[in-house]
Amino acid sequence: MIVADLHVHTTRSDGTLPPDAVSDAAREAALAAVAVTDHDRLPPYDAPVVERDGVTVIAGIELRVTTGDQRLDLLGYGVDPTPELRAETKRLQRDRVGRARKIVDCVEDRLGVDLNLDLHDGIGRPHIARAIAESSAPDDAQDAFDHLIGTDRPCYVARDLPTFERGRALLGDAAALVGLAHPLRYDDPERALAHAGELDAVERNYPYDAAVDLTPVDETIATHDLLATGGSDAHGERLGKAGLGRATYERVGTALDAALAGR
Predict the structure, then answer these.
(1) Is the dihedral of CA 47, 45, 63, 95 positive or negative?
(2) Do 77 and 8 fall within a single domain?
(3) Which of 17, 48, 128, 258 ranks highest by number of CB atoms within 10 Å?
(4) For residues 188 and 16, what is the distance between their CA atoms, to the nearest angstrom?
(5) Cα 55 to chain center, whole Å?
């Protein structure tokens, strides 16, 4: 039974669930704990861990970094923002807005449509894809990624990302635990997992295809004595599609509490 979903997005990035509704959605899914991990945005809480109506809400972040030609996502848990992390997330949001403006201009020019999209902090390509689908263009959201705004497509614009080393250092100072998100989603999982030894955790449980082989993840966790985390990567209002059972979550919770106590 899943009791903790440690990878959830809200309207502060590209999710549809308002932050204030996270605890209600968690209770509806019979979860004891949830982590809010919006893309490149600081959590909207006044403490690294808060209790909301009987649900433990962990303040987190999903930070995209680069290792050269590979981009990875790092999950920070128990975030108490430092000035350096605040400055970097502000820079990343400015970069997101500027990038979105270039993508929108390209899409509108190619399709002859007006997307009428608010270029707000937290904006990402999913927002643009939805706007394309809701416009007079014939493309749906997936078509938009496949043909227009996906990587190497005509309207794709790259982001200015921090290096893995920079991101790891920022989260190491601000978060109690730092993990690698969804390692088997990358084009080269082996290269991604090679960085896990510098982290505290790896996201093992994720809504992968049922046929996925978790052996490389389990071997990495065992080799480096890492925590196994898990979450649904929810962008909608349903939580708990993937996550941690009670025993595994208790190990993560104990490590989180110990790290916070030692800060």
Answers:
(1) negative
(2) yes
(3) 128
(4) 30
(5) 20
CATH number of the domain residue 181 falls in: 3.20.20.140
β-pairing, 49-52 vs 55-66, is: antiparallel
Residue 156 lies in a domain: no
Asked if residue 121 belongs to a domain, the reply is yes
**Tell me, what's the pLDDT at 69?**
86
Range list of β-strands (E), 67-138: 71-79
pLDDT in tens, 173-225: 999 999 999 999 999 999 999 999 999 999 999 999 888 999 999 999 999 99
User: In this structure, what DSSP letter does residue 145 have?
Assistant: I
Residue 231 lies in a domain: yes
The closest alpha carbon to 232, from 80, 93, 13, 31, belongs to: 31
Hey, which bits of the chain come out as E strands?
4-8, 33-36, 49-52, 55-66, 71-79, 175-180, 201-205, 227-230
- Residue whose pair of structure tokens reads 């861990």 in the numeric block: 49
The two tokens of residue 235 are 């962008």
Question: Residue 56: inside a domain, yes or no?
Answer: yes
pLDDT tens for 18-68 read: 999 999 999 999 999 999 999 999 999 999 999 998 999 999 999 999 998
Going by their DSSP bridges, the two strands 55-66 and 71-79 should be labelled as antiparallel
By residue count, the chain amounts to 263
Count of domains forming the chain: 2
State how far Cα 213 lies from the chain centre: 22
pTM across the whole model? 0.94
- 119 with 41, same domain: the answer is no
Residue 198 sits in the same domain as residue 72: yes
